[in-house]
Amino acid sequence: MIPYNNLVMSLNLNSINQTGMIIFTVSTLVFSLAIDVIFSELPTKIHPVVIIGFIINFFKNKFIRIKNRLSGLMTVLCVCLVSSVILYFIYLISSVNIYVLFTVFSVILSSTFSVNMLLQTAVDVKNALDEDISKARQLVSYLVSRNTNELTESFIVSATIESLTENITDSFTAPVFYYMIFPLIIIVFKIPNELFFILLIPVLYRISNTLDAMLGYKTDELNDIGYVPAKIDDILNYIPSRITGLFVVMSAYILKLDGKNAYRIMRRDARKCPSPNSGYTMATTAGALNIQLIKKDTYILGNNNKDIKSDDISKAVRLSKLTISLFTVTIIILTTLVFVIL
């Protein structure tokens, strides 16, 4: 494994360790974003999230026999442990060469978020809706858990925008937030094996999010085993979701949408959702677009100021793109400044 000082030398840096960490952290983030934007998702057979899913299923089948919430805690601990060991071996093998390490590191990091697929899926629904509502219903069924067989155009648009904006946090801002913040903790507490732990943190976030996606349902089968994963995911998304909501507001102002209403609706409606976090991006987007997002018998976000149309999906996509871009630039600048100060 490459010692950190050797890593700095390999990068031709004649500076302190913190400078090497700044450059490596930022450059791998930028490179991983490029991988996601250009290539989208990795092949299914080697995608880390798919592998994590297999590990989750294995331990779910083992611990679901425990008919209390301890089953969920045991599943979380075992999945995190096994995944961390696998990641460490990959990291060790990759550390034979700085360029191999950089590439493998960036590829794995890119798998912890999903910008391209998030945005493209919404665009696909919009295009399908303009051609064939039946096809649009089918595409939306992959995004939401509700029955989409008889959804009207307005409800298809609403479901698409809800899914898109809710997942800004899960699919990008949260893993990047933890990826960029954790190096600061490493510097302060001088944690050894820095690069491995920098990568491990967003991977652990993705594990938590996948656990919640697979187990966090209030059904008879999953009610006990899904409780702990759901609560951990809520905790991890608490800060990122609220930060993301504020970036949606800023992006709305920049795009000359209704930024003032976005902030007002976020404060008024964000807590109407069953999830303590998802409303902070969904409600804000509803306010920015001056539309109403409705999930029957669950929540109504925003005001019914105008009819919701397929073009609103395009507006939501532009708003989401700018939110992601603005957040990325901001967190890179802020964490770099803190690195310099430290």
Q: Any descriptors?
A:
342 residues; mainly alpha; two-stranded antiparallel ribbon; 73% helix; disordered N terminus
Structural class: mainly alpha
In DSSP terms (H or I, runs of 4 or more residues), the helix count works out at: 13
Tally of strands = 2
Q: What is the number of independent domains?
A: 1
Low-confidence stretches: 1-16
Briefly, what is this?
The two termini are 26 Å apart.
What does this structure look like?
It is built from 13 helices and two strands. By secondary structure, it is mostly helical. The chain has one domain. A two-stranded antiparallel sheet has the order 1-2. A hairpin with a 3-residue loop joins β1 and β2. α10 runs antiparallel to α11 and α10 runs parallel beside α12. The two termini are 26 Å apart. 44% of the residues are buried. The N terminus is likely disordered.
SSE blueprint and pairings:
Layout: H1 4-10, H2 17-39, H3 48-63, H4 70-94, H5 98-110, H6 115-131, H7 133-141, H8 153-189, H9 194-215, H10 227-254, H11 259-269, H12 279-289, E1 293-295, E2 299-301, H13 311-341
